[in-house]
Amino acid sequence: MRNALLIAELSLREAVRKRLVSVLLLLTALFLGFYLYGIVRLEGTLDQRSLEAGLDGRSLNGASNLPVIYSAMFGMYLVYFLGSLMAVLSTVGAVSGDIENGVMQSVIARPISRAQLVLGRWLGFGAVNLGYVALLSAGLLGGVYAITGYLPPEPLAATGLILLATLLLTALTVLGSTLFTTLANGIGVFVLYGVGFTGGILGSIGTFADTPTLTTLGRAANALMPTNALWLGASYHLQPEVALQVSEAARGANPFFADAPIAAGLVVWAVALTVLAVLGATQRFSRRDL
Amino acid sequence: MLEGVNAIETHELRKEYRGRAVVDSLTLTVPPGEVFGFLGPNGAGKSTTVKMLLGLVHPTAGRAQVLGGSPHDPAVRARLGFLPEQFRFQTWMTAEEFLRFHGRLAGLKAAELGARIPQVLETVGLGGRGGETLGGYSKGMLQRAGLAGAILARPALVFLDEPTSALDPIGRVEVREIIERLRGEGTAVFLNSHLLSEVEQVCDRVAFVKRGRVLQQGSMRELMGGVLPLDVRVDHLPPGLLDTLSGLGELRHTDTNTPGRADVELWLDHEDAIPAVASAIHAAGARLYALNPRRPDLETMFLDLIEDTPDSSARAARLGQGAARA
Ligand SMILES: Nc1ncnc2c1ncn2[C@@H]1O[C@H](COP(=O)(O)OP(=O)(O)OP(=O)(O)O)[C@@H](O)[C@H]1O
Ligand SMILES: [Mg+2]
């Protein structure tokens, strides 16, 4: 374990030294600044309108506040998307990159097991990616709260599910980087991510059009790649009663938000898949010639 | 330290890539503290062998023991040092960070590393440059940094895969000195090379490999078939001298084409015969200008072995030519 932590520490320092962290912080600031500025303007318009309508104020969880509620939700969708992008891009060469440029030989010749190396890489990059998503979520929800006073019903549960999706994608990308070249891995994991998203869309069309086959296909895709299901689960926790009613009325026509919480089995499966991916990566890497 | 346990022992070690054997029935023994030269042309399987001995590459068949254990055992690897043929390291690290990272992986304590790192940097000629990032290092400096990493943890066995491929002439001499110092400290060295002069000067024993097979192994003397070539130059050949000389060794070659001098090549069985040769020349009344025992010439042996000339007569002919050139 000591060696795995040493590799994790190395990965963290690598992220800092290769300017990954500073670029991320800068882009986070830009993204949040841009988005929150939009919310400030929105809030101003809404206040103006309610004044014109002769109302004293808006109920935070009422229909009149739906624009703010949806801004927070789409903001969190962007957080999920950026987090996934980041999880794949930062981790895409976690193992293959070092094999390709020859760094791995001198590291593995040291008294470290290959499993420790893979575990350390996953922990290190996982920490960077989780930190990024946590920072973005806190910045976005905190910013919305500071500006409008609105906070989604269960921000922690929602963020937790998004973090799990990030960790799962990191694990799958680490697995891919023990199987494929860096480039092939990047493409491969994005395709998988696309499978998850397709699953969400098929599922929602299936429900909407009452087509059981499509729903089943969607379920299969979600099981294969549960990241999108995790996001949908998170979206449920972000919606107050009024937004849930809208979602229900839409009968699944909106593939971005769900009107039901995620099945507990899917969360367990996502955790299991994360562990399996890391184990598979250690297995695969242990067999590989360097 | 485990005294008496061989540094390396392999038995019928074999590696195939896509059905093609790149290392084939390799049986080697390297005793502790020995400097062993592994020679062969490009693609002979030298690097693959080293990687198998370090656990980087999994053998297809056969057995490899390093320091009495398996190279897959981290405890064994803790006592190995390795300079890869492609010395690529994390370019974002400074040389000191690189050595600290490797030292910690090898299990060294922080205090120990604080003293050891400047020491090895000094040894490889990078003293005072440890604070620069490896990305800014020249090729030769990188190889030196890799060498520092290889000897950092005071290993019992060091693998050096073409350690001077990027070095200037001074660097080559320095590497030789480092290897000699390692030998002095009782560290075994496995040296991959196709630079024969380098191997010739430092190795106790060598093995020649080609297409994954060992053609010959042994001490330099054994490989030469136990003979010691001796070049003699005199002003003239008094009658009877050649007869006397052929009694002392095998007369290989005589050259009297240049007026005022005569060159003779004699193969002796042992260096104890050299003073007798000098006395014989003196007694015959010739003036002696040169008496050079030639070290076994690896270059010649290498070319011989590597070319498909298994019969020894061709080899002898070539040795003769080598003498004429010299
Ligand atoms: N990963 C691999 N996949 C397929 N073939 C390989 C691989 N690694 C090595 N080989 C083959 O094995 C043979 C031996 O390679 P190796 O690197 O051991 O040679 P070498 O003796 O070190 O040569 P050089 O002097 O050029 O360094 C070569 O023919 C090479 O093509
Ligand atoms: Mg090689």
UniProtKB/TrEMBL annotation, chain A:
Q: Does the keyword Membrane apply?
A: yes
Transmembrane segment boundaries: 20-40, 68-95, 122-147, 159-180, 187-209, 262-281
Superkingdom of source: Bacteria
- One Pfam family here: ABC2_membrane_2
Protein's recorded name: ABC transporter permease
Keywords attached to this Swiss-Prot or TrEMBL record, sorted alphabetically, are: Membrane, Transmembrane, Transmembrane helix
One GO molecular-function entry: ABC-type transporter activity
The protein's organism comes out as Deinococcus indicus
One GO CC annotation, please? Answer: plasma membrane
Automatic annotation (TrEMBL), chain B:
Keyword vocabulary terms for this entry: ATP-binding, Nucleotide-binding, Transport
Q: Which Gene Ontology molecular function entries are recorded, alphabetically?
A: ATP binding; ATP hydrolysis activity
Q: Where's the ABC transporter domain?
A: 8-236
One Pfam family assigned to this protein is ABC_tran
Keyword ATP-binding attached: yes
Family the UniProt entry places it in: Belongs to the ABC transporter superfamily.
Protein name as it appears in the record = ABC transporter
